[in-house]
């Protein structure tokens, strides 16, 4: 009788070992697939950055009312109404408004400057992170209008050029 229990026990142990090995192999396969997905995502991100660079070549030119933030932009636009647009290149909501603002910057009133600030991108620098903290911005696609002293006048999330024009005070 003890011999039967031993044989049954070994059989169960064998099944457990085989099941564990199968589970391990299955997880290895999923792990390899996720690393391929990561590689594809990284390549897509590189392509997105290249597209951003191409679409923004005309920004920050003389007379443009849609600007990319740099350390001088706030000082250079102090005499206009300023709206910060906290943007992320991976954001599916931000990209269309970025395109809309780029293509229709001539519809932005001459006394208004819309300044695109990177938010949570690999390119986001400390100045941009500090701006987000200063104005309490916790997610991308947030707009903040500033007065001439850099104080917040109003803040809203979402929308396009029409909402910017409606919200400017």
CATH top-level class of the largest domain: Alpha Beta
User: Cα distance, first to last residue?
Assistant: 90 Å
By DSSP (H or I, 4+ residues per run), the number of helices equals 5
Structural class by secondary-structure content: alpha/beta
The overall strand count is 5
Name the helix and strand elements from N-terminus to C-terminus, one letter apiece.
Answer: HEHEHEHEEH
Rg from Cα: 27 Å
Q: Pick out the low-confidence regions.
A: 29-58
Mean pLDDT: 77
- Strand arrangement in the largest pleated sheet: 1-3-2-4-5
Q: What is the CATH architecture descriptor of the largest domain?
A: 3-Layer(aba) Sandwich
Main sheet specs: 5 strands, mixed
What does this molecule look like?
The chain is an alpha/beta fold and 169 residues long. It has two domains: 1-55; 66-167, 3-Layer(aba) Sandwich (Glutaredoxin), CATH 3.40.30. It has five helices and five strands, in the order H-E-H-E-H-E-H-E-E-H. The protein has a five-stranded mixed β-sheet. The longest helix has 54 residues, at 2-55.
